[in-house]
Amino acid sequence: MSVEDLVDELYEMVDKAWNLPLSGGRTVLDGEEVRHILDEIRDSLPQELRQARAIVADRNQIISDAKREAESVVRISEERAKTLVKQDEIVKQAQAKANDLISQSQVKFREMRRASNDYIDDLMKRTEDALAANLAELRKTRSNIKASQRNNQQP
């Protein structure tokens, strides 16, 4: 189960709990069942952290692939330039074309890197937001459960 499902289960448990008469809305919860759900939440969080790490690894792979592609384009450009070097005019044309290809490949590499960084940053931001929301919800639920348990222990 996902962390969100487990938190929903806790809410459902609180909603279905018995209200204590004359207690100001306090309820009775099965402590063992609550602990079981909290343990499942604790076990699920590392999985979400692994997913965030996988996103970072994907980002590094995308950057590495973009760099390899740019290097390949540069290599091809240089090879093309070498084959065009035969006469002065051809040399000038080849040099200009090679420079253009190198410039284009560098621009493409920067664009690809910027796009991949933006994409990965967006994924990481969404993951961070989801983890923060889940953590906040977990803390709130835990606080509510502790408060409920304290209230249940009072005569």
By helix and strand content, what is the structural category? Answer: mainly alpha
**Helix residue percentage:** over 70%
Please trace the helix and strand order, writing H or E for each element.
HEEHH
**Mean pLDDT, as a whole number?**
85
Determine the strand fraction and express it as a percent band: under 5%
Please give the order of strands in the largest beta sheet.
1-2
Shape by Cα distribution = rod-shaped
Sketch the major β-sheet: 2 strands, antiparallel
The beta-strand count equals 2
**CATH overall fold name:** Helix Hairpins
Number of contiguous helices = 3
Distance between the termini: 37 Å
Oligomer: single chain
Computed CA radius of gyration, to the nearest angstrom: 30 Å
Tally of structural domains:
1
* Low-confidence sequence ranges: none
CATH C-level category: Mainly Alpha
CATH architecture: Orthogonal Bundle
Task: Please describe what this structure looks like.
The chain has about 160 residues and is mainly α. The protein has a single domain, classed as Helix Hairpins (Orthogonal Bundle), CATH 1.10.287. The protein has helices spanning about 5-15, 30-85, 90-155; strands at about 20, 25-30. About 5% of the residues are buried.
Please name the defining characteristics of this protein.
Helix Hairpins; mainly alpha; two-stranded antiparallel ribbon; 3 helices; 155 residues
